[in-house]
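Continuing the batch. This is chain 6 of the set; chains 1 through 5 are on the previous pages. Same settings as before, nothing changed between runs. Recording input and output for traceability.
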Amino acid sequence: ARHSAALHRMRATTHATTSIAMQGTNGARDATATAHNGGAQRRAATAPAHAQDGETATTMRTTEGARHRVIFFDCDDCLYKNDWRTANVLTAKIESYTTQRLGLRDGDAYALYKKYGTCLKGLMEEKYLDTQEHLDEFLHYAHDIPLDIERDEKLRAMLLKIKTPKWVFTASVAAHARRCLEKLGIDDLFEGIIDVRAVGWETKHSPRAYEAAMRIAGVDDPSDCLFLDDSVSNMRTAREVGWTNVLVGTHARDGGELITCDHADHIIATVHEFEALMPEHFDEIEDAAPGKREEDAVPGAPN
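Output for chain 6:
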């Protein structure tokens, strides 16, 4: 096993493996084709998604009355809440990969997460994942899990009424995010998925990730951006780059303590409270009856 002295020093003092916090599991490829092409990329890789038959998709309407031009939604533990069951399974898979396949010690994955923002970023920086083959193997292994996520008709109805263009902005890979969206029944309601590949493997602790997301979404002014996420640390960076942010979740993953966050502009318990918080982003839609789903709702993404 390869151990650097630095990695030994940063072993976590408490074996909090369940706090790896998705370790880069919140993203792969919907927007990756446009991630590095500069301002001209816009939405080239992900054309507007289509609502189910009989429903009215509102993501491309004008946003008169709303001061934000685009909304970015995190995926895991933001668009759904399931008491971190998915997060805990992902955490366990990442821990097992680092110990069984890389030969690291128990807790080293958490130490990498604490130092670099995600375990994935740490494994790349420490050269444990130094080829595309190793990256793909890790990402497939970590996300090859069952999803305990239920369809959410209330969420679907709310998202259908949003008139502001909306993207999924995840620190994970698009294939995982898409599976989550499909489980929720909302995979056809976003402009696309901006994942860790699309932002050049940056974490949401880095302003560069937000800058890349803006380029993909076709916006230049940070004040045009609204961001919903369940991570307190991501609130800090989003505010630093000038985005309006909304913390989704009022209790901590470990211990369940009430969350306080000086960097959040707004705090809501679940994403369902977003409409009441910012009604200016919503249109009224009557009789939005469910219909047949488009097979390839978010174009440009891997199967």
